[in-house]
Amino acid sequence: MTDVYLASSEDAYKGACEALDALNFSVTGKRVFIKPNLTGGLESRYGLTIDTGIVRAVLERLHECPLITIGESCGDTARAFKELGYEDLAREFDNIVLEDIREAEIVWKDIPKPYHTKEMPFHASLFEHDYVINIAKMKTHSLAGVTLCMKNIFGCVPTRKQKLMYHPFIRKAILDMNQIVKSDFCIVDGIWGNEFDEIQSTPKHSGAIIAGENILAVDMIAAEVMGINLSAIDTYQRAFELWGDPDINMLGANFDEVKRFYRQGALFSTRIRYIKETAASLVYRALNRH
Prior knowledge:
Elements lengths: L1 E7 L3 H11 L4 E2 L2 E6 L15 H8 L2 E2 L3 E6 L4 H7 L2 H7 L3 E5 L5 E5 L8 E5 L7 E11 L3 E3 L1 H4 L7 H7 L3 H11 L4 E10 L8 E10 L2 H12 L7 H10 L4 E5 L15 H20 L3
Parallel strand pairs: 1-13, 2-4, 3-5, 3-9, 5-6, 9-11
Antiparallel strand pairs: 1-12, 7-8, 9-10, 11-12
């Protein structure tokens, strides 16, 4: 049985502290990689990007860690790090490196049980760490169904062109990615989530923070808050077959305190974009290693 804590809060930092302390979260002496979701680089209230306070809460519970890397790949990672306060965190806490994954050295990894491809590129520095903390935003996604912790690992693929190879086929591709990148601890920021279209900010208030060690369990509770059944999404059907359906010990708030119903869908412009992206992906895959 795996513990998952659901905090009902209007403050991401306080909600994260509550969840982390309830789960006795503490990491000592390890090289830690933190993967936040910083899509768009906007403030968390717009529903696309995690609240920096959650990362602060995590950092306060890391002790004598020789290396702590915060890594992300978004449209302008450097700007996001600066404007969202990550440069300030790096100055405040010891041994922190901010990494733009798009500019990192690349390593190719064989996929143990391929669903979409036999090998994939990742940023090499990730594998120099002992412990991965996955901090996702609560969002819907027109291709993946939801953007939670499993989808957040998509950001570990370095370049835009490499992402292009996999994004149109993301429901299978993230199964391949999560076989290589194992999340040791997961958090979902659902204070403000995002519904309907992943390209457009359509904020949805839930007032929820979800945390736990099991990525599927955390995603299941987050999806329940969203009013979405993960068992209806083929990615998670396959994930349950691959890793097992977790037996969850639910802690913290009741669902009725935070549960909302997130609309799913996509703008017409997003659908057209993905049609073009699929065609480009097939061409790119035919001409490049994949």
